[in-house]
Amino acid sequence: MALFDIKLPETIRARLGLPQNDFKRQQERVLRKLLHKARFTEFGQQYRFDEIGLQENCVKLFQQKVPLFNYNKIYDAWWHRSLQGYPDVCWPGRIKYYALSSGTSEAASKYIPITNDLLKGNRVVMIRQILSLRNYNDIPVRSIGKGWLMLGGSTALQKGGGYYAGDLSGITAKKVPFWFQPFYKPGKKIARQRNWNRKLREIVKKAPEWDIGFIVGVPAWIQMCMEMIIEEYNLKTIHDIWPNLAFYVHGGVSFQPYKKSFEKLLAKPLTYIETYLASEGFFAYQDRPNSKGMRLVTNEHIFHEFIPFDDKNFDANGDPVENPQVLTVAEVEEHKDYVLVISTSAGAWRYIVGDTIRFTDKQRCEIVITGRTKHYLSLVGEHLSVENMNKAIELASSDMNISIPEFAVVGEPYQNLFAHHWYVACDDAVNAETLRFKIDDYLKQLNDDYATERGHALKEVFLDVLPEKTFIQFMRSLGKIGGQHKFPRVLKGKMLEDWKTFLANEMIPAKR
């Protein structure tokens, strides 16, 4: 059964026209649709959506009249009422589902509203991405109609006062459309499993019964799953049990640090397809081979804005200044970092996601994720991004022929000045001092500000090499084990305190 041959409902088929390149007009149309749908909500009434949506310059009026929100601000002012069961607060009707998200920096869970309108939009984007496989030359056609192993959160959601909460992947899997169910693995029974280790064991047990063509999930957990299957059945590679495995759909973190150890588990290359799917919505997807970026979704259910990520618009803590500059998709420039702001069909209005992105091809509206506002290190003006860190790790590990699947960096005081402290996961034999020197040297080449400050206030770089299991055990100690959770690349605040306490209690031996 070929996936491309599925007969989709007419309502979905009508919405699957190929994206056109008038992104400005598409986004204006999306905004008008959102304003019209939400005009009778409490939020829409306060900010006069009915009037804004009728004006020719509705985008500018929307930006002038509606303030920017971070999570705490919009939750305290609006979303808490939805959580208490009030209807028509920021989006029509009652909110029945919430995605629990703590990101990689905050300890407390966030309740992100999930509506049927948002899920429908996400599904349309997913179908577009599937159809874009036709853009790939020499794709293994026989793999397209095979099973999709989607490794995510449990579909057994927590019940609240009139709502359900859990991982977005669990909510999405719970509402898998009927036409996709024949392809979906691990199936509803295993997907309900709350215990992550038990879920993995059940997947391993079922693995020989499945013919998998696609795997979907966060790299660290997908890799762990494949390693368990290979060990259980005494295989050389995962292709010994799934010969038709040809595609890996990933997102959430950079895949590059995992690639070397990941590919040791394969007998033949996979086609890697990157996605940008967050709790707040499906923002972008890779729709052509060898592209440097992902196509931003501009014509469906999300209106995007962009704040330049620079010292004029953000303070040293990564928080926006009052009245920052905010641009539309028509006003951005290539090769500059922006913080993403979204308005969605779930009642997130001018919501600052916290991710930083960069346009690699404005004509195609293609972007890459460069990091998070809270995950930059700029103690003394070094402006070190997660993108810089990932690249330095990639280059250093390639030079030394080692695998570094996880790492984290801490900024700390040192001799009245400052230092960076790296914690690196590596199970290969490695000279920690050589690795430290290479990472530091590559960062100087990648980032002029870093190179300057290494001669001044950023006096030292420390590096500890730890077993990969240390990072997994730490996440398990926080209850953050599973398909949605990623190890933070920059440790600050409560997460840093927990990390130091964990290392001290575990007395982890490190190579330095």
TrEMBL record:
Alphabetized InterPro entries for the sequence: GH3, GH3_C, GH3_M
Top-rank lineage group of the source organism: Bacteria
A molecular function (GO) term: acid-amino acid ligase activity
Signal sequence residues: none
Residues in GH3 middle domain copies: 297-362
GO cellular component term of the entry, any: cytoplasm
Pfam families named among the record's database cross-references: GH3, GH3_C, GH3_M
Domain GH3 C-terminal: 388-492
PANTHER family xrefs: GH3 DOMAIN-CONTAINING PROTEIN
Stated name of the protein: GH3 auxin-responsive promoter
Organism: Parafilimonas terrae
